[in-house]
Specification:
The protein is built from 10 helices and 4 strands, in the order βββαβααααααααα. α1 links the parallel β3 (32-38) and β4. Strands 1-2-4-3 form a 4-stranded mixed beta sheet. The longest helix is centred in the middle third of the chain and has 45 residues, at 127-171. The chain folds into 3 domains: 7-74 and 125-148, GHMP Kinase, N-terminal domain (Ribosomal Protein S5, domain 2, 2-Layer Sandwich); 78-111, no CATH class; 152-287, no CATH class. The chain is α+β, with helices and mostly antiparallel strands.
Length: 291
């Protein structure tokens, strides 16, 4: 079964007053190119997160984000009551001993004092919270893999359609091959008789004609292209991770189609070759998205 490298997944887990969000998306790439944006509390787990992602995704340009949303009441910066009281007592003492008037607005003065409104607590990641975050990460990865499978099924359908089209176009060449041989013979004979006006040995002429036509024979190219089409189908049915292999097969298909075109020497056959190239280009574009 084909897997696409394109995918997206997002999941959320709840822990206390927190909502933990995990989001992951991927595009095509020759190898695994992983970038992460992780909330500070979970950064100690970055290597474990990267391992989880690499085990499943294998290839692709991957962007991963993990962040927290907390209840507004929990996010409010606490006021250090003890420090406010200490500043108040000190200012009152200074006012009493120096005669400097006490401030008219005590709250405005005290809240501007150093460290009155600052977070000093150090948060530690508990095993329970990490378990909740890991669940969100795993779910997001699974959703992305489901997306990849759906996209892969669509790619396989598209490839099958294009391969069928190339096969039909290849078969449509056959009627023109005999016609082409006759036209080549007539053209050469006409040139000998009318343009050059020379006597020639008929046996030698036939020998040279056969040699010339053999150089334009495309039976080998047709057979190899047919084999490549079958091999492409077989490879699609294998396990995932065959994207590079499919790319190589598509290149070989292009080689045979190009050689067929260069040997055609016939307008209708060359038109068919152009159509085959168009179908193959669409395959090559989409193969880049295959795992």
């Amino acid at each position: 079964m084909i897997l696409s490298m394109t995918g997206y997944g997002k999941a959320v887990a709840t822990f206390g007053s927190k909502k933990i969000y995990a989001e992951i998306k991927s595009l095509n790439s020759k190898a695994l190119d992983l970038s992460t944006r992780i909330a500070p509390l979970y950064r100690e787990k970055e290597m474990e997160i990267r391992t989880l992602i690499a085990q499943q995704l294998e290839r692709g340009k991957v962007d991963f984000s993990l962040w927290i949303e907390e209840d507004a009441a929990q996010q409010a910066t606490p006021i250090n009551k003890a420090l406010v009281e200490s500043y108040y007592n000190q200012l009152c003492e200074i006012s009493r001993t120096t005669g400097i008037p006490a401030p008219a607005d005590w709250f405005a003065t005290l809240l501007r004092m150093p460290d009155v409104m600052s977070r000093t607590e150090v948060k530690e990641l508990s095993d329970e919270e990490w378990a909740a975050a890991r669940t969100a990460i795993t779910e997001a990865i699974n959703l992305l893999m489901d997306f990849r499978r759906q996209e892969g099924a669509a790619l396989e359908k598209k490839f099958t359609e294009k391969l069928d089209n190339i096969e039909q176009l290849l078969q449509s060449i056959a009627p023109y091959e005999k016609e082409r041989t006759e036209k080549i013979r007539e053209r050469i004979l006409d040139n000998l008789q009318k343009s050059l006006g020379v006597e020639y040995d008929n046996n030698r002429f036939e020998q040279e004609l056969i040699y010339y036509i053999e150089k334009l024979d495309i039976n080998e190219e047709k057979q190899r292209l047919t084999n490549h089409l079958s091999y492409f189908r077989e490879t699609m049915s294998e396990g995932h991770g065959q994207g590079k292999k499919l790319g190589f097969i598509a290149q070989e298909m292009g080689r045979e189609i190009n050689t067929t075109g260069s040997k055609s020497n016939h307008a209708e056959m060359q038109n068919i070759v152009v159509k085959m190239k168009d179908e193959l280009e669409q395959i090559k574009e989409q193969v880049l998205n295959v795992m």
